Amino acid sequence: MSREIQEQHVETVATVETAPAVQVEHHVIFPGPLDAVRSLLSIVVIALFVLTFIVQPFRIPSESMEHTLLVGDFLLVNKSVYAPPGVWKWVLPYRNVSYGDVIVFHFPPDPTDHVVKRVIGVPGDRVHLHQGVVYINGQPQHEPYIAAEPSLPDSFRDEFPSALYSDPGAELHWWLQMRHDVTNGDLTVPAGMYFVLGDNRTHSRDSRYWGFVPRPNIVGRPFIIYFSLRRPSTTDVPLVPDDRLGHDRDPIGKAFDFARWDRFFRIVR
């Protein structure tokens, strides 16, 4: 009896081992025109939502924020970081505008333009500059990010607020308004306003020349440089010619020299 069972088991195994392999056919299903249109519309809607409510790209056209931001840098700006917290406050990181923040805002003299500067004074702060050094509430500020570009002395720029209207670049109505906000030589930042300066202090038209930034004008905060074209700046120091051999005619080097590759995906601080 046991021998018959063993024989049957051997026959079963042999049958399984010699059975022909089953070939599985793979069919590629291509989406139809309607599915393709739906996917495209979904991408467009998501992109519009992101660009409208979350981030927005900008390009730096001037040297006023050197060397934090250079001419030719392309930025992504977080538009939601300063938004009033709502139902999304547990998902998106909202916060108040703070000292030292780099912000993008609608230019007060012409709201159609966007400008980028650094926040130096928040509501209630007392601000003044002495020999180019910023004092907040009587305390000198350590600002490692500023560019020390050489320039001639300027009493209005470096000794702010100035008692004399001595700079043709300053707007007259702002200088007259500023008189009401100065106390004991300090400019007091009113409620709902912000005092901003460029990091390149000697080549920046900022709150010293046209006034405060209202809170509703603030668009957002730049958080990353995603691209950077190599563009000349008026503050560039020309190189002294020498007799060293160069490789300016190298076509490969010229092909890759159009961009500042080391600035790609740099965090803005």
Features:
269 residues; alpha+beta; Umud Fragment, subunit A; eight-stranded antiparallel β-sheet; 6 helices; globular; disordered N terminus
Description:
The chain has a domain at 57-232 and 258-267: Umud Fragment, subunit A (Ribbon). 22% of the residues lie in helices and 22% in strands. By secondary structure, the protein is α+β, with helices and mostly antiparallel strands. Strands 1, 2, 3, 4, 10, 11, 12 and 13 form an 8-stranded antiparallel sheet that branches. β3 (102-106) and β4 (114-121) form a beta hairpin. The longest helix is centred in the first third of the chain and has 22 residues, at 33-54. The chain is globular. The chain has 6 helices and 13 strands.
